[in-house]
Amino acid sequence: MNMSIKENLINIKSQLPNNVKLVAVSKFHPAEAVMQAIDAGQKVFGENRVQEAAQKFDIVKAAHPDVELRIIGSLQRNKVKEAVRIADAIDSVDRIELLEEIEKQAAKIGKKIQVLLEFHTGEESKSGFESKEKIFEAMEKFAAGAFPSIEPRGFMTMAPFTDDQELVRASFAKLRDLRDECQKRFAGFDLSELSMGMSGDWKIAVEEGSTMVRIGTAIFGARDYGNAKQAGA
Ligand SMILES: *Cc1c(COP(=O)(O)O)cnc(C)c1O
After folding, report:
1. Is the pTM of this model over 0.85?
2. Per-residue DSSP letters for 64-111?
3. Ligand 1, closest atom to CA 127?
4. Phi and psi of 48, rounded to 5°?
């Protein structure tokens, strides 16, 4: 058994405040790596491609039904059906049409699914709702009862890829401000979750109020993109 996944998990958890959830991002790593993390006590995983996630987590969940899978990558409409089938939460919702499709597919199979709304907070990242007005518009639809199968739980962002820590911090602070404003406007919903922070910037994210960090490399090691592509992931 590879002890380093376990050691990495123990190391990160020892530094993470108790109220911050750890999403282990297993993209490009095989089901065996996920199993090792589960053996070390990890229960929540993130994947950014639906097909790859389904291949792995159909196996993993058959053995461990209590494991939670979160989709964290940008999602095409034609992948929503499969995403809704396999995932417990979709954290990368970046447009209203996606909510409409998630609702349609979730209602079809009678599933209630959680989502986070992804907000574009950094110049260099491309994903996420572009403006807070758009996010308010999405929340108005929730408030009007348009998405009975979907439970909005908060927000997600990716900080810009830069060495400038102040830019990274500003990006996280922007998400927190959005959350606070949205929570006030839509007080009937619990929008408390802030999914922010990755291997390189999670400590800053936690300082800025993250409730959920998404960590891949620091748990599973570097990703081998070449192999994963050949494997059809
Ligand atoms: C890959 C990925 C992560 C994890 O990145 P690491 O730097 O390996 O920790 C987090 N969030 C998203 C959206 C990702 O695609």
Report:
1. yes
2. -TT-EEEE-S---GGGHHHHHHH-SEEEEE-SHHHHHHHHHHHHHTT-
3. 13
4. -110, 0
